TrEMBL record:
Region of interest (Disordered), ranges: 67-86
Family, as annotated: Belongs to the glycosyl hydrolase 100 family.
Gene3D superfamilies found in the cross-reference section: 1.50.10.10
Name of the molecule in the record: Alkaline/neutral invertase
Amino acid sequence: MDGTKEMGLRNVSSTCSISDMDDFDLSRLLDKPRLNIERKRSFDERSLSELSIGFTRGGLDNYESTYSPGGRSGFDTPASSTRNSFEPHPMVADAWEALRRSIVYFRGQPVGTIAAIDHASEEVLNYDQVFVRDFVPSALAFLMNGEPEIVKNFLLKTLHLQGWEKRIDRFKLGEGAMPASFKVLHDPIRKTDTLIADFGESAIGRVAPVDSGFWWIILLRAYTKSTGDLSLAETSECQKGMRLILSLCLSEGFDTFPTLLCADGCSMIDRRMGIYGYPIEIQALFFMSLRCALSMLKHDTEGKEFIERIVKRLHALRYHMRSYFWLDFQQLNDIYRYKTEEYSHTAVNKFNVIPDSIPDWVFDFMPTRGGYFIGNVSPARMDFRWFALGNCVAILSSLATPEQSMAIMDLIESRWEELVGEMPLKIAYPAIESHEWRIVTGCDPKNTRWSYHNGGSWPVLLWMLTAACIKTGRPQIARRAIDLAETRLLKDSWPEYYDGKVGRFIGKQARKYQTWSIAGYLVAKMMLEDPSHLGMISLEEDKQMKPVIKRSTSWTC
Ligand code: GLC
């Protein structure tokens, strides 16, 4: 139970933090004039890097306009709609209202948003909790609207929960584990608030959320970037919290790969779906959080050790992912012609993938132009399925090269019907059916074909798609997706997910008023309106890593 006060924030004098604050930054490139970007065709047709040509760094706008949150005119008024010149969509006001209704308070302070407020649903399960991953789009919406307080409270509250002793039966979980979700219990008689948290010990399947710690680090950077307030990330508590998360995933073991070995159901897809092993969602979030942590860790004795480990891991992880998870027409053709049973360092087919294991659908699905990071790679096993979250995060974190990022967008465009259809965005493609569904999901009735995690369409993914579109200079794709969402979301009361091959039906067991569907829509809208917000959640290709890559031999000695 939580019986303590919020930890105070110390103002630590900075040695060197948020080093990427000075990085090439979209928020600097694109400030005020961009408010009208939606109307400019030229923007659609050029990449952001092209747009940057002609702008002198630092000469565009000042630090203040980038980092100070937008002022709000009234509690219920989204600042973004008062700041721009065009009429907000009527759905925006409704979404803000619904988002504010979902706010959870702890001792009078806002600390998060509840997963769903669906009064019609008979079963609450754990949808009345504040999920770490679900809060991310809410947090971004609040940051973009100039309301950082709730985000700061959330970061501190979850950090506090990390300090709890976590057990499943007689087994103690790693110290750094962050909860999947937490709940505030109000006692109206005693007038007390207490917290309960779930680290996987109550979750269906008893799986710990590997993504929670990563999202926490990513959100800490977003908060810092958006407010310009370095003091939170610099507190010894936050520094320790980051180090604890990192110790969990940087520890040495029997691994032969730099990727992170995971149990099924350890992320947004929190049920058995055959994503065990090295799922793309986790690898992309792992990569992004390593980069975020690198920019926030202090160069003190403890921090330095982690910084060195992060740099080495990033180097290896980037190489591994870009080489072995990447699939395009050429790569598919190469795998199709692979020899098997190769031994020694000269092997081309390093993981001994048997070409016969390539599913038929991939040959039709793969366009001549385009590509993506596949779902999983491990010995003799490539999961060729498309997963939206991992691919969007790969673009945002620059795990994908600029060419790969473009190719992912090309794929989305050319496979629009399959990946977007009538409701953005398919969480995974294609669905698994029949015998395969029985074996892979263990006959999960919630994950039947084209439903829920098994090929369902999740509106929350709209914000990630929009961010990826802006980053790759293709906002027109995001606009098309948002237009689709606007035809249904409000009318259908903000469902959690849609079912069917093209996402036409409200999901079989989907909650209504699912908070991250609401927040995801708002974030997508605000980002498109003001692309400078992208800087919060995006990292440019790390230029400093390049010389290191060239001198790669130095890493082996
Ligand atoms: C479902 C989703 C999970 C989400 C939770 C709360 O379990 O699979 O990703 O965090 O609902 O919305």
